[in-house]
Design brief:
- Keywords: Membrane, Transmembrane, Transmembrane helix.
- By secondary structure, this protein is α+β, with helices and mostly antiparallel strands.
- The protein folds into three domains: 90 residues, no CATH class; 310 residues, no CATH class; 38 residues, no CATH class.
- It has 14 helices and 13 strands.
- Strands 1, 2, 3, 4, 5, 6, 7, 8, 9, 10, 11, 12 and 13 form a 13-stranded antiparallel β-sheet that branches.
- The longest helix is centred in the C-terminal third of the chain and has 25 residues.
- It is globular, with a radius of gyration of 26 Å.
- The model has no long low-confidence stretch (mean pLDDT 85).
Length: 524
């Protein structure tokens, strides 16, 4: 059997293919400004003042909206500042949990029932449907199609003595899972993959060890017991636990509602009951395919366990598996958003910073199945100092993937490849040399065109990723972010775009809510 590692190139899309590499909103603003300048000239009868006014308008719009070196324009930065000012004035950056001593205090609590960035999202009421154990979220925020989401806990690929061939097989099997989900017969149109790294809870092991030691009667074993206890004391502060979750995103499409109507008619069920039935069928299929892909044990989480996961993702003091008191109304800890981080907890004892991993930040090099391993499991722990003890780097990595039907993806790849080759030919005719960006873009579109050939079984996808890093103070958070950036560089990620002024909003992209990726013309 070949031991050659399976590779892929993800980072070829390093620039937009629009005119001058500008975004669509900027091009639209330019078109409106040009129309306004023409209107001023015509209404002014071509007089000197009309010409000057039109030119001033065009120059002002160009200067305000031009994006230099992929950085936000002045207008974008100004709009961001105004948006931040408005949020803070309305108190949208603050949320108080009912157990917070400041809850209900008009001077410290804006009075939100739920965190404002959550929007219009709530669990479906499944009482009396026969599917009471399921937990389905319905999201109906403006600007996107209504969708339902379900959370799965996944054991993940077993580690240990595995070679490149084994990891390549696991990678191919997971790719098959995604391809199955992307088929027209599936109502799942996107997934969110989450990896959470937290300090390992040694309490169960310590309790087990104490129970075993209490049964020992031979005094000669005392030195060994004491040595084992000392070993636990040394390793416990640095022990790290890794947990994986998958959130399924099922949009309320016409095909989905047709299936709901069919199920409701056949089983004489209510609309909510039929929706739950269809979502359950899709969830069972996804869980079965994940198991077949070698992802280990897969559990569909109910309300308490899912809410415990959400709470633990935000507040490290809460454990992922302690769900006795977890509920949708109480799983949101208090927080206060700031410029460089958000403070979590009634005493603001935790600080979280969120960053985006843009597709353009991924190096256009061959990446193997373990390309993200340094960021997932290879981040160094904080060694501590005289004031704070050592502790692993608490972090969450979230990847959102939306599927693009094969035919639509082939059309986009063919169009991009044609445009890239035409640009290269034009530059060759002019004898123009660039920095290699044109070749990288052309190579990326050509690879997509070849990968999506009919009969390949492949589908298209759009994706994004975000990371949340948590520390015990601002200084501890700065050190943790530095370690995460170093691990990202080892994973061929050149830059993390930190969500300045918006950490309390961006953190919701790292929660298992199937959010964080806007709809595109290919995925609507």
């Amino acid at each position: 059997m070949s031991t050659e590692s399976r590779t892929a190139i993800l980072g070829g899309e390093i620039a937009r293919r629009s005119w001058l590499g500008l975004s669509r909103p900027v091009l639209l603003i330019w078109a409106l400004a040009l129309s306004g300048a023409v209107a001023i000239y015509v209404l002014g009868g071509g007089q000197t003042w009309a010409i000057i006014a039109a030119l001033v308008l065009l120059v002002a719009v160009f200067a305000a909206t031009m994006e230099w070196h992929d950085k936000p324009s002045w207008a974008a930065r100004r709009a961001h500042s105004l948006r931040t000012w408005g949020r803070r004035r309305r108190g949208e950056h603050i949320y108080r949990n009912p157990c917070d001593p400041a809850f209900g205090d008009p001077e410290r609590d804006p009075g939100w029932a739920f965190p404002p960035p959550l929007g219009n999202i709530a669990p479906l009421s499944l009482g009396g449907t026969g599917l009471d154990d399921m937990w389905i979220l319905r999201c109906a925020n403006p600007g996107e199609r209504v969708y339902f989401s379900v959370l799965l806990a996944v054991e993940g690929v077993a580690d240990g003595l595995r070679g490149d061939a084994a990891y390549a097989a696991s990678s191919a099997a997971f790719g098959t899972f995604l391809a199955q989900m992307a088929r027209a017969s599936s109502h799942v149109r996107g997934v969110q993959l989450l990896h959470r790294s937290v300090p390992h809870d040694m309490t169960p092991h310590i309790h087990w060890a104490q129970t075993r030691v209490a049964r020992l009667a031979d005094a000669r074993l005392t030195p060994a017991v004491e040595s084992y206890g000392a070993l636990i004391d040394v390793t416990a502060p640095m022990a790290e636990e890794h947990r994986s979750f998958v959130a399924l995103r099922i949009p309320q499409t016409e095909a989905f509602m047709n299936e709901v109507a069919r199920v409701a008619h056949i089983k004489n069920a209510t609309t909510i009951g039929a929706i739950a039935q269809v979502v359950r069928d899709e969830t069972e299929r996804a869980a079965r395919l994940l198991v077949l892909a070698g992802m280990g044990r897969v559990d569909v989480l109910g309300e308490r366990r899912a809410c415990a996961v959400i709470r633990a993702f935000l507040d490290p003091d809460s454990k992922l598996d302690r769900h006795r008191d977890a509920g949708w109304d109480t799983c949101w800890p208090s927080y206060v958003g700031g410029r460089d981080s958000m403070a979590i907890g009634p005493d603001r004892e935790w600080r979280t910073r969120v960053g985006y991993l843009r597709p353009q930040a991924i190096e256009p090099v061959p990446l193997g199945p373990l390309w993200l391993a340094p960021l997932l499991t290879g981040v160094e722990a904080d060694p501590g100092d005289d004031d704070i003890p050592p502790m692993p780097t608490i972090r969450t990595l979230s990847v959102r993937i939306d599927f693009v039907p094969a035919q639509r993806a082939r059309t986009a790849a063919r169009g991009d490849s044609t445009a890239d080759h035409a640009r290269r030919a034009k530059e060759v005719r002019r004898g123009k040399l660039d920095d290699g960006s044109t070749e990288v873009l052309a190579g990326a579109s050509e690879r997509r065109r070849q990968d999506l050939m009919p009969g390949s079984g492949h589908h298209g996808a759009v994706y994004t990723a975000s990371v949340a890093v948590t520390g015990r103070s601002e200084d501890d958070l700065d050190r943790a972010c530095l370690r995460v950036v170093e691990a990202a560089n080892e994973s061929a990620i050149t830059e993390i775009d930190w969500a300045t002024d918006q950490h309390d909003v961006a953190v919701f992209t790292t929660l298992p809510l199937a959010r964080g990726l806007a709809a595109t013309p290919h995925t609507r």
